[in-house]
UniProtKB/TrEMBL annotation:
Transmembrane residue ranges: none
Family in the record: Belongs to the AB hydrolase superfamily. Lipase family. Class 3 subfamily.
GO MF term list: hydrolase activity
Fungal lipase-type domain boundaries: 110-248
BP terms from Gene Ontology: lipid metabolic process
Keywords on record: Disulfide bond, Hydrolase
InterPro entries to which the protein is assigned, alphabetical: AB_hydrolase_fold, Fungal_lipase-type, Sec_MonoDiacylglyc_Lipase
The reaction(s) this protein catalyses: a monoacylglycerol + H2O = glycerol + a fatty acid + H(+); a diacylglycerol + H2O = a monoacylglycerol + a fatty acid + H(+)
Lineage: Eukaryota, Fungi, Dikarya, Basidiomycota, Agaricomycotina
Protein name: Alpha/beta-hydrolase
Amino acid sequence: MAPSSWFTLLTALSAITIGVRAVPAPHTLTIRQDAIAPLPSAEIAAFKPYTWFASTAYCDPSSTKAWNCGENCDANPTFEPVNSGGDGNETQFWYVGYDPTLNVVIVGHQGTDGSQIAPPLIDLDIPLVPLDDELFPGVDPSVRVHQGFAGTQSRSAPGVIAAVEEALSLYPTRNVTVVGHSLGAAIALLDAVYLPLHLPSDVNVRYVGYASPRVGNQAWANYVDSLHMDITRINNKQDPVPVLPPIEFFGYHHASGEVHIRNDDVWVSCPGQDNPSDQCSTGAVNLTNFNATQHPGPYDGVTMQC
């Protein structure tokens, strides 16, 4: 899906920052180039079911509830849906279900639909705000996140947690993986932090996000890292969305966990937060060097769409 709202921000910033490169988080400056490692082909292939699940989140809730959404649903044929929701406008589509092949509960969140009015406005609602203390009890108020992302996550949270609890009661697993692309990846990361605060301690939550923008400030990135959760952010080549909102203007930072697709068959693991290497998104992409057509993919052959 074309991230038109992000391009509005890119255009405005480019006009005043020609040639500016993103400034990495201070503690990442000492990361060595040789710490960056290519992923073996088997590890790349293991992400593919989750890539399809992220793409599926762009499909209407009626089709994900029935699991008859065409190619996306066919790619994970054993999936058993539990519930779905959202209106695709103020609340992005979401769905929850169980995959017996992977033995995991899946939570999927839709990315930006540029044909709707609200999603681009959500993307551009960039003030940093504290987390809702009812949804995120006990989190320090210095932890601040994107106001638009927090708002839409809060609207889907009641339905999502109810569906996850139902799935965990119905199926023999204690594993939950939250997925999404673009705006959906941002919502999914908030969910990955939110869910463990409300689920039993024996439930393991994992995050796999694609083309996620930055979600919060340095305190947020540090807090996410402190949870020692399994987090993977997959970014495609010169896609500009993962370097937005810019560090130097708004104080946003990524948590650790980036995997950068350098070309279709070369994926590299980028340690640390906002790794400055030119093999990783923060070092390779800036306001004058990007390719917006790479935002929807492909990710190992999968393009994010329904």
